[in-house]
Amino acid sequence: MSKLAKKVALVTGGSRGIGAAIAKRLAADGVSVAITYAKDASAASAVVKAIELGGGRAIAIQADAANVEAVKDAVEKAVETFGRLDVLVNNAGTAIPKTFEETTLEEMDRVIDINVRGVFATTQAALKHMKHGGRIIMIGSAVGERAVAPGLVPYAATKGAVKMFTQALSREVGSRGITVNNVQPGPIDTDLNPASGDWAVPQKAATALDRYGRVEEIAAMVAFVAGPESSYITGANLTVDGGMNA
Active-site residue 155, yes or no? Predict the structure, then answer.
């Protein structure tokens, strides 16, 4: 039996890219998975169907990460459906690549609302249901640790906030046996940041491995952090970036 059998996870932004890969990996490891999505119901449904075809259990819940009440309701729906909540993966995030001076206040607010406020609200709601052995996992970014390129000032700032949120929260919930960790991807081949895109050449060149990462490589780290073998890891920023920040 899988080490994660009978566990329940909520993965925000789980309809595509890294989030979808995380949901599928956790399900393959025996976890019942709830995913949230903002708009694309068909993509979310496809993830659920893929998990069910593999013998797993999954549901999709419409909830924009910027909508606090929606994410709170998503947590409750996950618990109502599966009876408990063991793992929260705060994956939902956004970036609006442009120079800082051209970035509007509305764009900055959107990035902050999803990448920081949404994480705060979802985590607070999830902690009400978590018991000893619970796992809070952030999907931060390597640029939250080290800014390697221009054009991502608000995004990098929010991911830096997620980094410190992780460390501070780990101090508060450690006595309850709950770990809090931050997985920080580097350049990963997704629809939002394709390995064939205009931004790919400098990102690939900045890595030690001279390649983009795969979504499955992030999912593998999340699965490890979600499992029992990571029980003494908390408050950690685990960078998976092909050596970009080396």
Answer: yes
